Amino acid sequence: MKEISWDEFEQVELRSGTIIEVEDFPEARRPAYKLKIDFGTDIGIRKSSAQITDLYDKEKLLGMQIVGVINFPVKQIGPMRSECLVTGFVREDGSVVLATPERPVDNGLKLA
């Protein structure tokens, strides 16, 4: 594993956001959802694709707070443009457990 400096870590914009919309993403190569995430007034609403269908139902995701990277370049994923990266932990079986704040926080807060 390559070590990084504190300055390099600070460049990654890991922010809190709330999932406000969830749709199926049938065009994805692997099962995924299309998400709209509210990162607060300064950042706004961003779209993302997330391969989290193994552990999460659409209804349970609505209103959930997540941790997302908001300063990666936009990435084209099939017919959609992903504007942020939803973070999580990949288990041995390939399912993803979302990284979430332990209690409610304001949208847009930076992970320290």
> What's the helix-strand series?
HEEEHEEEEEE
CATH topology: OB fold (Dihydrolipoamide Acetyltransferase, E2P)
Give the CA-based shape: globular
Radius of gyration over C-alpha positions, nearest whole angstrom: 14 Å
- Main pleated-sheet profile: 5 strands, antiparallel
The number of strands is: 9
Kindly provide the name of the CATH class: Mainly Beta
Beta-strand portion reads: 35-45%
Q: Identify low-pLDDT runs.
A: none
Measured as a percent range, the helix fraction is: under 10%
Number of helices, counting only DSSP H or I runs of 4 residues or more = 2
Number of domains: 1
Tell me the CATH architecture. Answer: Beta Barrel
Whole-Å distance between the termini?
Answer: 21 Å
Q: Look at the structure and give the mean pLDDT.
A: 97
The neighbouring-strand order within the major sheet is: 3-2-1-4-7
The structure class reads mainly beta
